[in-house]
Each structure stands twice: as C-alpha cells, then as structure tokens.
From TrEMBL:
<dbReference type="InterPro" id="IPR056752">
    <property type="entry name" value="EFL1"/>
</dbReference>
<dbReference type="Pfam" id="PF00679">
    <property type="entry name" value="EFG_C"/>
</dbReference>
<keyword id="KW-0690">Ribosome biogenesis</keyword>
<dbReference type="InterPro" id="IPR027417">
    <property type="entry name" value="P-loop_NTPase"/>
</dbReference>
<dbReference type="InterPro" id="IPR041095">
    <property type="entry name" value="EFG_II"/>
</dbReference>
<dbReference type="InterPro" id="IPR009000">
    <property type="entry name" value="Transl_B-barrel_sf"/>
</dbReference>
<dbReference type="InterPro" id="IPR000795">
    <property type="entry name" value="T_Tr_GTP-bd_dom"/>
</dbReference>
<dbReference type="InterPro" id="IPR000640">
    <property type="entry name" value="EFG_V-like"/>
</dbReference>
<dbReference type="GO" id="GO:0003924">
    <property type="term" value="F:GTPase activity"/>
</dbReference>
<protein>
    <recommendedName>
        <fullName>Elongation factor-like 1</fullName>
    </recommendedName>
</protein>
<keyword id="KW-0547">Nucleotide-binding</keyword>
<keyword id="KW-0378">Hydrolase</keyword>
<dbReference type="InterPro" id="IPR014721">
    <property type="entry name" value="Ribsml_uS5_D2-typ_fold_subgr"/>
</dbReference>
<dbReference type="InterPro" id="IPR035647">
    <property type="entry name" value="EFG_III/V"/>
</dbReference>
<dbReference type="GO" id="GO:0042256">
    <property type="term" value="P:cytosolic ribosome assembly"/>
</dbReference>
<keyword id="KW-0342">GTP-binding</keyword>
<dbReference type="GO" id="GO:0005525">
    <property type="term" value="F:GTP binding"/>
</dbReference>
Length: 1031
C-alpha cells in the first residue's frame, strides 16, 4: 500500500508523463472485473494475491455486487506499472448503471473497451463506445474470452480468426458512424447496423484494414485475451519473438502478423494471398504463428488430462520456464493456467498497450479541454475583461494540465458516493465532521484534478453547472465555498489518505457532502466556467411510490431518501402532486438496490414499495390522416363549445394531431426549448449545444431547431402518402409556415409536445371580442418575419369598446393556464397530452346590459367566482372535451429490448414475450453458437418482472436488457363497443366482450389515481350490469 505521505505533491513535473487514467468499459459480463483482478494482482502493490485473481472480483466489493455477480458502481484503483502510475476505473456493464459509465469516462483519458469474442458486439458495447467518443477518450480494444472460441465453440484457428476480424470490423464501423454523427441514440445505432456491409463471411480475411480504422491490431491498440485464464497478447508480443526465428525485423512482423499476409516457407518471404502457391489451404500468418500454437496448448488439456509430450513441445519452442511442480499438477486447468500466465501474462499485454497507446493527462487534456470547457466567444468589454482574462487563464491551465502549486486549482467531481464511516482509515473516524451527521455514512466525492495542486484543508469554490462568472447577481445561487477535509487515493474499497494531490490524478475528497448533490466543478477562483455536463444514456424511467410500513417512521424515510439521493448519482427522489414519495430509477436492478440500500443503510426502517407508476400520454387518432385535411379542420365546424357559468365568455376549441415527427422533436428538444424560451443569449445557447456533443458546430441552435421543425412536418408529408403531388406538398408546407407564425404556447409545463395556436381572427361571434393571443413562441423561435408585418391587431378594434378589449387582453393568461392545465391532464386518465394542436377561440361578451340600471357589474362576478378562474376552467374543460370527441387514444412508452437465448429455450422466450405484448423486430442466430439474439419492443407497463420471468422460464439461460426507446400510440379505441353486425359477430354484443388493452391500462391508472372507474360487476352468472363506482 502506498503510505500516507506527501508523495504525490512532491513528484516533479516530468512525472505527469508517467500517469495514465483509464477506465474499463464493456457490455455486461464481458469480463471487465475479471480483467481488473489480474491487473491488480500484478501491479496493485499486493492487495490481491495472484492465485485469487479472476475469482475474487476485487472491485466488486459491495455485498450486492458479489451476490448478483455484476458490477453496480464505478470505482478506481491505483496501479504501479514500472515507473508508471495508472489509475484504473472499473465500470458496470449493466444498462441500469450506465450513469456510472458516464462518471467513469469523464475522469479518464483512455478506455479499454472489452468485447466477448463469442457474444460479440451488444447494445452496451454501442453505448460505451459512444460515451468514449463523446468524452474524447482514446479507446483500446480487448477481445476477451478467446478461450471460449476454443473450448466452447471448438472453432478451428482459421474460423476463430475470421470471427475476430469480423468483431473488429464491426466495432470500427460503430466508431466511425459516431464520428460522422450518424447516430443519435444507441438504439438507432443498433437498429441501423447491418450485420455486415456486404462483406461475406469468407471474405473477411481479405479485407485490408482501412487507414481510418480506430482499432488496428498491427498498430498495437488491440489485445486478444482470456481474462479468466489470465493471458493476453498484442501483435507486438509475437513480432518480437518471431523476429529472430523468421529472420525479419520486429517492425515488419508487426505489420505482417495481422491481415491477409502469408508466409511462404520455401522462399521465407512474407507475401499476399496471390503470392502463395496453394492459396486455398494457406493460413494468414496470424493464424499460423499465433493462433495455432495457442490452440495446441489448449488442446493438450482439453480432454480432461494433460498431454505432456505436446505440452513440453510448446514450452520448449517458446522458451518458457515453468516450475515442474506446476506442470505436474493433477488439475489440467491449473496446468493450463500456469503455462498461459507465464507465456502471455495478461497484465503486461494490457498495461504495455495502455502506456503506449493512451495519452498521459497533459497530452489528453490538451484536446479534451474543448469538450470539458468549450470555448465561449464573449465580446470583451471594460466590465468583463478581468473576469474573462482570468477564466481564459484557467482554461489554458486545464489545457496544459498545469500541476505547479501556483496554477489555479480546477477539479471535477463526477459523482458523490457514500461509505460507512467505519470503513474510513483508522484515525479518520474520530474526526466526525458535521457533514456526516449521525447516519453512520460519510460522503466522498469521486474527482479528478485538472489543474493545480489540492491539499487537505484547502478552501475551494464549488460551482454548479449553471454558474456563470459574468452574472454577478447569480453568484450566491450557484456558487459556494467549501473546505476539503481529507483526500484519499482509492484502492477499490480501501482509502489511503494523502496530504495533497496534483493535476492529472484521481482522488476521493471528503468534506463536500453538504455542498454537492451529484456533480460539480471545484475551483480556486470564482472566475472560472463550470465544466460541461456529462451525457447520460438513459433517464431514470422506472418510478415507484415508497412509504414506511409504520407511518411513525416517516421522518426516518425522509432522511433516508435524502441520503440515498446524495449517494446515488442517478436516482431521483421527488414528492408527487399527491404527496407520495416517488423514487425514479434506471431499471429494476437499480431500483431493487436502491430499496435495499434504503432499508438497510439509509433509512433503516421497513418500507412498502408500490407497483411501478407507469407514465402514459394521451392523444387523438390521426396517424394516417391526410395532414392537409387535418389542417383544414381547424377552420371547419368541428369544435367543442363551452360557456363560462356567468355566460360572458364562449369558448370554442378545435384540436388536431400534430405530425408525429414534430411531436417527437418538440419532446426531445425540451431542454433546448426551455433555454430558448427562458431568454438565454444566443452565445450561451451555442455553448450549451456544443457541450451537449451533438449538433454541427457554428450553427445557431435556435435556427437549427426551427429548421428541424420545418423538416419534421415536411418529412411527415412524405410518409405514407405518395400520390399527393407537388402542388399539394407545396400547399401544405405553406400552411405550416403560416401556422408556425401563430404559436402562442407549448404545453404542458411550457415546453411540452403540444402547441396552442392563436385563433384566426375572422371568426368572431357577433357582439363579442375575441381573445387574440400573442404568438410569443413563434417570436422567440424566430418564425415571425419582422419585415412582412401583417399586423392584424388594429383592424378588429372597431368591434367592442375599449374596456372590453382590455378585459379580453387581460384574460389571455387565463386561456394559457387553461391550456397548460388541460395538456397536463387529459380526459382519459389525467395523463399529459401528447402531440396535439389546439386552437382556442374565446369570445368575451360585454356585461349584460339589461341589468345595467343600478346593479352594475360590481357584485356580478362573485356569484360564480372570479371571471379569470371561470375562463381558465372553461378552457380546460373545452380542451378535454375536444380531445374526447376526436377519438382519444392512449400513448405508451416502449423499451427496446435485447435478448440472448439458446435455441432450446426459444419457445419459452417467445411465450414470455407474447405475454408481455412485445413486438419482435429482429432475430438472428449468432453464428458459430447456439445463441439467438432477439430485438423487440416491450411496453414499459409490461416490463416489470420481465427479466425475472424470462430467467424462470428459461432456467436462467436467457438474458434481457431494456432501454427506453420511444412513445407509441395504441391504435385501439378505449371506448370500443361492438355496434355493427359484423363487429358483434366478431366481438360479441358488448356484455361478454373483454375490455381491450387500452381500456384496461386506462382503468388501472384511474384506479391508482382515485378517479372514477366504470366497472362491470358480475351480478349473476348470466347477466352483467354496469355500475358506476364513484370513489
Ligand atoms: N471463459 C471465460 N470466462 C470469462 C473470461 N473473463 C471473464 N469470464 C467470466 O465472465 C463472467 C463475468 O465476468 P465479470 O468480470 O464479472 O464481468 P464484468 O464485465 O465485470 O460484468 P459487469 O461488471 O457486471 O458488467 C464471470 O463468470 C467470469 O468468470 C474469459 O476470458 N473466459
Ligand atoms: Mg464488473
């Protein structure tokens, strides 16, 4: 162990070159933690005995991780490889913990991306490659579990080679697509990758590596490994060995030992396929010189006993020195492992690649800075020049990874995690800081120093992601000062106190528990921009309500939830409108762990957990309807009319369906919209966008959004309807352009996927004044062309008197509130509306004149409550009624699901899928194995317990991963009752018909929310009656 001393601070500057910060990323179960074990056993300073490597899973130190045998959090460990010090972060592969991948990637400069050689690329492989790309990490590839190709699939070396080639080809394809910004989400990338782009299986061996390819074995950034048996190699390991034997230079062999290169034994020349006489039987050099000897070693022990003659041959030919005691071992597996670990030690292969291919912190930060602290073009003036100059200085010290003591300190905390106080190193425990309270938990920050030197006891500023050094007035809101109490080097679970640490290192910091909830930037100066936010693959979508079994424990639960919220980077704790404590997690496994943590660590009381609260949306039918017809509707007569109780306001509402691409776009852009509508400056917006890592640089995000909105409606013209002709398209697009000038509000919550358009001014009821509204949103989005000012406001002022006009104007906000209320709770089951456009015409009439004599308007309104409230309510009711009238439909959330099942369990798997209303989109045999990969959409409402049920029915042989995909309208009419003869014949006369799915889901939500549900109660076995249950 590294002793507690000042070591880190005293390292001289050149030492930075000897530091590497890396993380291990992969799909679940591809062997990350097993690999980490070997690295730790070899270079972890003796914390793990080599005999235990691969079995202990040192980095999975939580009980729950050991029990389930999956990693759930990222944690770091310091290794010493020669003179290099390497900070290694192991990360989880399970989708539920993908946020931990983001936090690990942020702190690293390079990533070891593992791929199981049998299973190949999976959904999380896509996700981690994307994270690495977003965070500008240098990736290296490790093809793990090569032993499975030999022992399980029994492939020949040649077959194995083709398979390895194909995986590398596929991974390269994914990375290059991310580079060219082809993919927006992981599901996109998964769905769009064809199994191969035209390259037939047998042709893979002929594919020359593309210069552009990210991963190339001959370049040294690919290692072939078996973490379980502790071996691995890169091409260079063999290039050096064969150099003298084949009489070629190591550099030549480095190029020749991969790809379509053959060795002509007669001429002792390295040739291409054409240059070889018996081309059909020829094996590439990689197969002949690397895989074949490897296969031999495995073959000697494959039959349950050791073929010692053969083994001796291999041992001799590679000059291995293995103690005979080990060779004599009775257990063939033990013999195999001692030969392989001596011949091709895994940790050396991996770490030599790391040291060679992954940049040191200084080199890495010089280009990562554009992602971490994007440049901001702010015009300098007298007021801000000091601030900007200093902020620029900070940025350049991050860029240079300046580790001198007088450089500004900049630290990024990527997550907070809790450790029981008793786990802290001795001597630290007594120091019980107020921070930790009496919970017995201590909060530590997982952090990397990007510039300067930090030391225990130092005071630094904590900047939230919203902090802006140019906005002095916001300072108190987004900035705090905090003292770092202790610093630790992390050795997995172990913490080694250090006095100070300098730029380029990863540490745990104690003392920030009160100041940071999830992540933050620390700085020694307030003139510093906060680091750009991390990107998470999914949002916490699985929600449950939690309450204590004993109501008296409410206080403990509250405290526990607060602690959990701080200890878990991803969980979301909220209180619902109905006062329930709602916990949102990324998935079932995550949820289960959170509940366990709450019960056993943070709240320590027994809890009741509700079934998942599934969210729905409400919309109307109209997917395939002719959009032009739809557009005409709003001018037609199909509307719902409501009158306020006092009769002074008549409200007419039209509703139509927005094109689905537009609704999706609005939904996805809610953050950006919030920023635009909240009045952020163009520059601030641009920075935000680039820091999100999408969008083309140099494009104004508002313009980009409006362009995409236009594209969205246009793309809808072409979907489904092809015979409408040019005229029609032009007309529709003109209509939309006009409409986009009339956007009054978005809802619910000001930025939702529903639009309120201003009413058309022509249709005014005699004697009334129309509440005209104001296209505020169009204005902010830049749809209003100021030059063509068709200002309609002046013409209509002839009708009605001044006071009435003013009253109408003052009622605008009531209409808006009514719209917001309606869109946040639709008529089916009070769930938010989705993808609807409303046109609300509210006509205000003057105060009734016949009662004008002496009882004037003074006491009139009170009779029915305040007028504004009446209007708001009438608008809300009218909107909801309009939706009910236009064939309402339920919209449900769908997961994308990836399943792996052995052939013999396919039947059971499909049974489970169909019980869950799943829709299969693709099924594919993984060639060479008996595994099927199936992709399907599963409704979120059906997903609870899905993985467990699958495991049960397939004896644990199938696995499934779920990730949120999209919203989809259920085409069923929830109010369907068979009416025509044919329908009655098919579905029965309504008395015996089963409720359809949409209706069932709606009723379940209504019951949960305590809304009235119409239920059929079986009164007599033969006769049913409908009873309204008013709850
Ligand atoms: N045959 C074989 N099995 C391996 C190899 N490496 C790991 N395994 C096994 O694969 C399983 C998963 O290994 P882990 O190291 O826990 O996988 P992981 O990637 O850390 O998994 P998560 O952290 O849960 O994502 C374990 O049963 C390992 O023993 C290998 O090279 N060959
Ligand atoms: Mg693991």
């Amino acid at each position: 162990m590294i002793p507690c001393n000042q070591e880190l601070a005293l390292q001289d500057k050149s030492d930075l070159k000897l530091v590497r910060n890396i993380c291990i990323l992969a799909h679940v179960d591809h062997g990350k933690t097993t690999l980490a074990d070997h690295l730790i056993a070899s270079y972890g300073g003796g914390v793990l005995h080599p005999k235990q490597a691969g079995k202990l899973r040192f980095m999975d130190y939580l009980d729950e991780e050991q029990r389930r045998a999956i990693t759930m959090k990222s944690s770091s460990i310091g290794l010493h490889y020669g003179e290099h010090s390497i900070n290694l972060i192991d990360s989880p592969g399970h989708m539920d913990f993908c946020s931990e991948v983001s936090t690990a990637a942020r702190l690293s400069d390079g990533a070891l991306v593992l791929v199981d050689a049998v299973e190949g690329v999976h959904i999380q492989t896509h996700a981690v490659l994307r994270q690495a790309w977003i965070e500008k990490l240098t990736p290296c590839l490790v093809l793990n579990k090569v032993d499975r190709l030999i022992c399980e699939l029994r492939l020949s070396p040649m077959e194995a080679y083709t398979r390895l080639l194909r995986i590398i080809h596929e991974v390269n394809g994914i990375v290059s697509a991310y580079k060219s910004e082809k993919y927006l989400s992981d599901v996109d990338s998964l769905l769009s990758v064809p199994s191969s782009d035209g390259v037939g299986e047998e042709n893979y061996e002929l594919v020359e590596d593309d210069e552009e390819d990210t991963f190339q074995p001959q370049k040294g950034n690919v290692v072939f490994a078996c973490a379980f048996d502790g071996w691995g190699f890169g091409i260079s390991n063999f290039a050096e060995f064969y150099a003298s034997k084949l009489g070629a230079s190591p550099a030549t062999l480095q190029k020749a030992l991969w790809g379509p290169r053959y060795f002509n034994a007669k001429t002792k020349m390295i040739v291409g396929k054409k240059g070889i006489s018996n081309a059909a039987k020829a094996r590439p050099m990689f197969v002949q010189f690397i895989l074949e000897p490897l296969w031999q070693v495995y073959q000697t022990t494959l039959e349950g006993h050791v073929d010692r003659v053969m083994l001796d041959k291999v041992v001799k030919s590679f000059n291995l020195s293995i103690p005979s005691r080990e060779l004599q071992n009775k257990d063939p597996k033990a013999v195999l492992q001692s030969v392989m670990t001596r011949w091709l030690p895994l940790s050396d292969a991996i770490l030599s690649m790391v040291v060679k291919c992954i940049p040191n912190p200084a080199a890495a930060q010089s280009y990562r800075v554009s992602r971490l602290l994007p440049k901001r073009d702010i015009l300098e003036n007298d007021d801000n020049s000091d601030v900007l100059n200093e902020a620029e200085l900070v940025r350049s010290s991050v860029e240079a990874c300046d580790s001198s003591p007088d450089a500004p300190c900049v630290v990024f905390v990527s997550k907070m995690f809790a450790v029981p106080v008793k786990m802290l190193p001795r001597g630290e425990i007594q120091n019980n800081f107020s921070d930790d309270g009496d919970s017995g938990e201590c909060f530590l920050a997982f952090a990397r120093i990007f510039s300067g030197v930090i030391f225990a006891g130092q005071r630094l500023f904590v900047l939230s992601a919203l902090y802006d050094p140019l906005k002095v007035e916001l300072k108190h809101k987004h900035i705090q000062e905090a003292q770092l109490q202790s610093l630790y080097l992390m050795m997995g679970q172990g913490l080694t106190p250090v006095v100070s640490a300098k730029a380029g290192n990863i540490v745990a910091i104690r003392g920030l528990g009160q100041h940071i909830l999830k992540s933050a930037t620390l700085s020694s100066t307030i003139n510093c921009w906060p680091f750009s936010s991390m990107v998470f693959q999914v949002a916490p979508t699985l929600k449950v309500a939690i309450e204590p079994s004993d109501p008296a424990d409410m206080g403990a639960l509250n405290k526990g939830l607060r602690l959990l919220n701080r200890a878990d980077p991803f969980v979301e704790v909220t209180v619902s409108a109905r006062g329930e404590h709602v916990l949102a997690a990324a998935g079932e496994v995550h949820l289960e762990r959170c509940v366990k943590d709450l019960k056993e660590r943070f709240a320590k009381v027994s809890l009741e957990v509700s079934p998942p609260l599934v969210s729905y949306k409400e919309t109307i039918e109209g997917e395939m309807a002719n959009p032009l017809e739809n557009l005409k509707l709003f001018s037609g007569s199909e509307y719902v009319e409501k009158r306020t109780p006092n009769g002074r306001c008549v409200i007419r509402v039209h509703v139509m369906k927005l094109p689905t691409p537009l609704s999706k776009l609005l939904d996805e852009s809610s953050e950006l919209l919030r920023d635009i509508l909240g009045g952020k400056s163009k520059q601030a917006l641009k920075n935000l966008e680039t820091s999100r890592g999408s969008i083309v640089e140099d494009e104004n995000p508002t313009e980009a959004l409006t362009r995409r909105m236009m594209n969205a409606v246009e793309s809808d013209f072409f979907s489904g309807i092809t015979d409408m002709g040019r005229d029609w398209v032009e007309k529709s697009s003109m209509l939309w352009k006009q409409l986009f000038k009339r956007i009054w509000a978005l809802g619910p919550g000001q930025v939702g996927p529903n639009i309120l358009f201003t009413p058309s001014a022509e249709k005014i009821i005699e004697g009334s004044v129309l509440i005209k509204g104001n296209p505020i949103i169009s204005d902010k989005l830049g749809f209003l062309d100021l030059t063509e000012n068709d200002n309609p406001s002046t013409e209509s002022s002839s009708i009605g008197d001044e006071t009435l006009l003013r009253e109408a104007e003052s009622l605008e906000s009531s209409v808006l509130s009514g719209f917001q209320l309606a869109t946040s709770a639709g008529p089916l089951c009070d769930e938010p509306m989705w993808g609807l456009a409303f046109f609300i015409e509210a006509h205000v009439f003057p105060v009734e004149t016949q009662s004008n004599e002496e009882s004037s308007s003074t006491h009139k309104p009170e009779q029915y409550g305040i007028f504004t409230g009446q209007v708001m309510n009438a608008v809300k009711e009218a909107c909801r009624a309009a939706v009910l009238q236009r064939k309402p439909r339920l919209v449900e959330a769908l997961y994308f699901c990836e399943l792996n099942t052995p052939t013999e369990y396919l039947g059971s798997m499909y049974a489970v899928l169909s019980r869950r209303r799943a829709r299969v989109i693709k099924e594919e045999m993984q060639e060479g194995s008996s595994l099927f990969t199936v992709h399907a959409y599963v409704p979120v409402s059906e997903s609870f317990g899905f993985a467990d049920e699958l495991r049960k029915w397939t004896s644990g042989a199938s696995s499934a991963l779920l990730v949120f995909s999209h919203w989809e309208t259920l085409s069923e009419d929830p109010f369907f009752v068979p009416k025509t003869e044919e329908e009655i014949e098919e579905f029965g006369d309504g008395s015996s018909v089963l409720q359809n799915t949409a209706r069932k889901l709606i009723d379940a939500v209504r019951r949960r929310k305590g809304l009235p549900v119409e239920e059929k109660v079986v009164q007599h076995a033969t006769k049913q009656r409908t009873l309204a249950r008013k709850v």
